[in-house]
Amino acid sequence: MGHALDLARRAGEEGEVPVGALLVRDGVMVAEGWNRPIGALDPSAHAEMVCLREAATRVGNYRLTGSTLYVTLEPCVMCVGALVHARVARLVYAAPEPRTGAVNSRFRLLEPGLHNHDVTVSAGLMAEQSSALLRAFFRSRRR
Prior knowledge:
143 residues, alpha/beta, 5-stranded mixed sheet
């Protein structure tokens, strides 16, 4: 998660909401991503989506079975859907997203048995660090 926070900082430096993600399979980092919707002119360029696209290209398959996605903020509905379709085995996220979080906060779209593929979820790893980074970013934007 420490590396995901570094990626989130990179997003913030680029003027994007500071969210970072990385995908690991068999103990090896396969791909990484950070928020890029503004710079890429792409509303789907969330950190998770960027990471999943890169991983699928590197692996040569859109199915990313046996992988774990680490992300600094609870995923939204779009990103949760991508996790299910990519067959990611496990999601580890840091901070909750009370407005649009689709795992625990606003929606519970990864409840076991809800889809044809279950994703195991762990939440709260380095949550305070991620939350502090987001608070600082939005505080600076309001000034």
